[in-house]
Amino acid sequence: MSKNYGEFTIIGKINKYIIEGIYKKYRYYLCQFKDGTLVVTENNSIRNGKVKNPNFPSVHGIGYIGQGCWMPKINGKATKEYSLWSNMIRRCYSKKSLKSHPTYKNCAVDKRWHSFQNFCKDIQELENYRQWKNNSGWELDKDVKIKGNKIYSKNTCIFVLVKDNVDEMNQRTESSRLTGLIYIGKNPSGKEYEFTNQSKFSREHGLDSSTIIKCLKGSKKTHKGWTFKIKE
Prior knowledge:
This protein has 232 residues and is an alpha+beta fold. It has helices at 43-47, 80-93, 95-100, 116-123, 129-134, 162-176, 198-204, 209-217, and strands at residues 8-19, 22-33, 38-42, 73-74, 77-78, 108-109, 138-141, 151-152, 158-161, 178-186, 192-197, 227-230.
C-alpha cells in the first residue's frame, strides 16, 4: 500500500535495471497500481509506502505527471515546464487561487493537458515557444489568439510577452467598464465631473474603481471625499 497513491501489486523482482547507464542488481521491483499503471521501484520505497503512481492526479486533483522523458524537477529544482504547467492547473482548479483571482472562474484545462508529459510535448509547437524557452518575460496565454476563450489547450494557446499581455488586459478592463451609462462624480471641493469609463476616471483622479462601484450601488457613501451617482 502506498500512503498517497493507494494499493498496488508487486508483479515481480527485476534482476537488472538500468539507471543512467548503470546496471542495478536485485534492488528493483515491478509494481502495478489498480488503474493499471506499471512502475519500477526500490525495495525501500515499497517498505516505507512511498511508491508513486505517475498517473494519479496529484496536482490540485486534476494534473498528473505521467510517464515519459519530461521531468518535473532536476537536482531538486522545478523545471521551467513544470512551473508553467502547475501554475496553469492551480489558476483553474485551486479553490484558494480562485478566491483571490476570481477572473479564472469557469476557466479549464483541456484533458490532454492534465498530463504533464502531453503538455510538454505540445507547447513545443506553440507560437513563440523558443522565445519563452530561451528568455524571461514570456508567458502562456489562452485568450489572445481567441478572444474570450477560457480553455487552455494546444489549439487555443500561444506564448506572449508579459508587457503585451498586460496592455491587452488593461484594454479589456476599460472596455468592461463602458456600461452605456453616464456617471457624475463630485470631488471634496464640490466640483462635478461626468464620465462613462469608471476605470479611466479612477486612474485620472487617483481613485479605486471598485470603490466607485460600491458608492454607485449605495454600499458606501463616499470615497476619498468623493460622491458618485448615475446621471438621470
